[in-house]
Amino acid sequence: MTDLPTNLKQPLAQLLLALADDKLMLGHRNSDWTGLGPILEEDIAFSHMAQDEMAHAQLLYEMVGELTGKTADELAFGRKPEEYRCAAIVEVPDEFDWATALARKFFCDHFDVIRLGRLAKSSWKPLAERAARIGAEEALHVEHVDGWLVRLGRGTGESKSRMQKALDALTPLAAGLWEPVEGEEQLVSAGTYPPVEAHDFKGWRSKLTKTAQAAGLTLTLNEPRTLGKGGRRGVHTKHLKELLDEMCEVYRVEPGAAW
């Protein structure tokens, strides 16, 4: 399918905004580590992956722009906090704790691989092609963060303790990644966001748990039942406004500026 039915445009815009907003906030949070990585090689790698996330977000905002008539900059920087669709886990600061930054990335990267894997099977070909391209890069992010989790879990007593503490702290927020956007069931029914075998909560939990066990860490993820309204419906933590005030400062001064 090359032409997207009109009734699917708004639900798809919401789904892509959720993915783009997650990536933009995660990329921005992780970019704060530039120059502060635990070793030089990791400093470079982590900064590069933060750039990847923001580049992915830009591509997705451009797709949303094709559906809504807005520019990528308007979507990224020109909305009110309640118009964003990111999950709480990417909003909260890591307070420059390396274990927390990795734990957040661990949950989010594995989830993005699932979302992108489903979108790569979309009946709408332009979406499937772009999702497959982004998904290939996201798979490298998963390999990287899994390696760090195992490295720290098998490291010293302190590294294992801090990594376990970070996982425990972020686990309650991780379920929010699975909150559906408004109209998501229409996209599933139409094959625009098709269910893919093992690309569900159980598959996500299985892969996360397998890596945690390899690291000698414990992870308990309860399947979300009825999620209250959260980030996918515009209900956010106080941290999102703080993050947007910092991130959108230049855009708000001159929204129409061309770079």
Q: How would you sum up this structure, described in words?
A:
This protein is mostly helical and 259 residues long. It has one domain: Ferritin, core subunit, four-helix bundle (Ferritin). It is built from ten helices and no strands. It has helices at residues 6-31, 40-68, 72-77, 98-119, 125-153, 157-174, 184-190, 201-214, 238-247, 249-253. Helix 1 runs antiparallel to helix 2. The mean pLDDT is 94.
Which terms summarize this structure?
single chain, 259 residues, globular, mainly alpha, Ferritin
Let me know the largest β-sheet: none
Quick one: CATH class?
Mainly Alpha
Q: Extract low-pLDDT stretches.
A: none
CATH topology: Ferritin
Distance between the termini: 35 Å
Discrete helix count: 10
Number of domains: 1
Short description, anyone?
By secondary structure, the chain is an all-alpha fold.
How is the topology of this model organized?
Layout: H1 6-31, H2 40-68, H3 72-77, H4 98-119, H5 125-153, H6 157-174, H7 184-190, H8 201-214, H9 238-247, H10 249-253
